[in-house]
């Protein structure tokens, strides 16, 4: 019998190996091309905490099936936990080579941002 992980279990077990994850709330952004530059997404029918974009950065080598499963799990948890509408959530997966990881991810987004990380890595570079 196949041993299946829950969405949350899959994400937790994969956290260190997969890299960084960013979740952004975009409700305060100004809509381009509007006469009133103070008009926001909220005034366009979106509700507070609706807009979420998640970026996962990981080393290359995982199959499209694994990346899709991860994206689906993140999407489902964002919708469930934050309460965003399904149409308001997007997930991006970026592959960063191991040779570029320190310069492009670790230094600027992890080491340079430790005070904002809700999950800190168990490694250092």
Describe the protein in words:
The protein is 35% helix and 16% strand. The chain has helices spanning 7-18, 64-82, 98-110; strands at 20-25, 52-58, 89-95. Mean pLDDT is 76; it is low at 10-18 and 23-43. The longest helix is centred in the middle third of the chain and has 19 residues, at 64-82. It is an alpha+beta fold and 125 residues long. It has one domain (7-115): Macrophage Migration Inhibitory Factor (2-Layer Sandwich). Strands 1-2-3 form a 3-stranded mixed sheet, with helices on both faces. It is found in: Cell envelope. Heterodimer of a large and a small subunit. InterPro entries: 4-OT-like_dom, TAT_signal, TAT_signal_bac_arc, Tautomerase/MIF_sf. Keywords: Iron, Iron-sulfur, Isomerase, Metal-binding.
CATH C-level: Alpha Beta
Total individual domains = 1
How helical, in percent, are the residues? Answer: 25-40%
Count up the helices. Answer: 3
Overall mean pLDDT score? 76
Task: Note the topology.
Blueprint: H1 7-18, E1 20-25, E2 52-58, H2 64-82, E3 89-95, H3 98-110
Parallel strand pairs: 2-3
Antiparallel strand pairs: 1-2
Helix pairs in contact: 1-2
Domain 4-oxalocrotonate tautomerase-like: 53-101
Subcellular location: Cell envelope
InterPro entries: 4-OT-like_dom, TAT_signal, TAT_signal_bac_arc, Tautomerase/MIF_sf
Summary?
The chain is of the alpha+beta class and 125 residues long. Helix content is 35%, strand content 16%. The chain contains three helices and three strands.
């Amino acid at each position: 019998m196949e041993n299946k992980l829950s969405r949350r279990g899959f994400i937790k077990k994969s956290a260190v190996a997969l890299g960084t994850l960013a979740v952004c709330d975009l409700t305060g952004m100004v809509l381009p091309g509007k006469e009133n530059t103070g008009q926001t997404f909220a005034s366009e029918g979106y509700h507070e905490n609706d807009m979420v974009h998640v970026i996962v950065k990981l080393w290359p080598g995982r199959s499209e099936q694994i990346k899709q499963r991860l994206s689906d799990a993140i999407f489902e948890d964002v919708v469930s936990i934050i309460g965003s509408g399904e149409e308001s959530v997007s997930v991006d997966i970026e592959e960063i080579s191991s040779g570029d990881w320190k310069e492009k991810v670790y230094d600027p987004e992890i080491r340079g941002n430790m005070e904002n990380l809700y999950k800190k890595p168990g490694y250092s570079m």
